[in-house]
Amino acid sequence: xxxxxxxxxxxxxxxxxxxxxxxxxxxxxxxxxxxxxxxxxxxxxxxxxxxxxxxxxxxxxxxxxxxxxxxxxxxxxxxxxxxxxxxxxxxxxxxxxxxxxxxxxxxxxxxxxxxxxxxxxxxxxxxxxxxxxxxxxxxxxxxxxxxxxxxxxxxxxxxxxxxxxxxxxxxxxxxxxxxxxxxxxxxxxxxxxxxxxxxxxxxxxxxxxxxxxxxxxxxxxxxxxxxxxxxxxxxxxxxxxxxxxxxxxxxxxxxxxxxxxxxxxxxxxxxxxxxxxxxxxxxxxxxxxxxxxxxxxxxxxxxxxxxxxxxxxxxxxxxxxxxxxxxxxxxxxxxxxxxxxxxxxxxxxxxxxxxxxxxxxxxxxxxxxxxxxxxxxxxxxxxxxxxxxxxxxxxxxxxxxxxxxxxxxxxxxxxxxxxxxxxxxxxxxxxxxxxxxxxxxxxxxxxxxxxxxxxxxxxxxxxxxxxxxxxxxxxxxxxxxxxxxxxxxxxxxxxxxxxx
Length: 500
Ligand code: NAP
Ligand code: MG
Fold this sequence. Notes:
It is built from 18 helices and 20 strands. The protein is an alpha/beta fold. It has a seven-stranded mixed sheet, with helices on both faces. Strands 9-8-7-10-11-19 form a six-stranded mixed sheet, with helices on both faces. A three-stranded antiparallel sheet has the order 5-6-20, with no helix packed on it.
């Protein structure tokens, strides 16, 4: 059944056909294995505040088993010894198996974190696309890479070995794809992995584990344990882990970087952001209005790279405020299971409180709410949900907290600049460097502004991420890149053999 048909057929949320609600297992060494502990973590639907699932709070013993299975599969299993082309064949089957599970992935994800089904309905296709993209890079690994010495006789053979056992840790905003961006290149490289999803979103990734098992990924290659941040910390520091990849907040990223620094363990970090949309004086309001929600408020503002900080030229400030306000106010907020919903709830109670606190700070510091600026009271089943009215703050000044810190909710701030130099200075005046946007009609001027932005990626008149191009943050937004051949290199260990 399609997501739509399931929704029409089910009379209540409880009637939705999804494979996992209350579970007591982890995925270890090729199958579902009971946790050794009895402590559990609950899963809450943020649209209703009702608990609908639970998972084991993994123990150190559970983690030992998972890392042990990954270690054995790496040291003596078939996976690292296959050619990359053989692994790519399996990855292509994984992609197919994921697509077969599109509806259950979408609904589970939406019930876990409130991402509207208009967003989660694309999760399976996106995850499958990432697997297929990395499968297409197999020839890069299998090709013989021989480099003659520039001066003298002899040559060097460059090998791209898998780096080893990888610990992969994901956040709750895109629980499927932010794990798949790590998993797919790690698997193509020949690594084995232990994954820990975020506590609010532990269930949807189980469906990906089933897809991998059905596709014939050998036992021990991919393992999944659920548990707290403390379990994540144990994974990061585990003596048998060779590499760590993390997406999440900057404070946790710093702790992981410190641990990996001490251990001299390679680490990839995708962290927070505070990205700016620089509106150039010749920007076309029609195309800006069209791109605004996806580029600046995707997933109820809970997307790391979106540009939630709009910089408008003084001469068009009022026009920009009017456009942004009317566009945001017109976007429907409601049940994330409704395919027409654009704004769902905040993903969890913690995030809801954080966003309301930012909204309070903006009012207190003198920003002007042109729409929203408060929680939203919905009716019926949604009365207790974590809904915040989609909010636009105008008259935001650079020193305000909402101008400098990541909010991660449905809140746009609009600042004013005079002259391009000041606009660019404002854009680059944050601790972060993840995304960015330029709205402008003259391609050359827009390109020049994009080049002047000190961030890992910038969009011109729209924002997106491309599986084939590196994605990563500068400054407090992270270390290293995901996607593209650069993302694959993060799972490789180079070795050079010199010979005559
Ligand atoms: P978070 O608190 O940093 O948690 C991320 C993951 O790390 C979760 O699985 C968490 O487990 C785990 N964790 C917590 N403490 C840990 C520790 N000491 N050692 C190892 N793992 C630990 O982030 P979040 O609240 O889930 O997600 C929101 C943040 O992620 C935002 O700041 C956002 O910008 C950032 N983000 C960045 C990107 C990007 O690509 N740059 C993408 C999406 C989100 P528990 O859930 O069990 O605590
Ligand atoms: Mg957290």
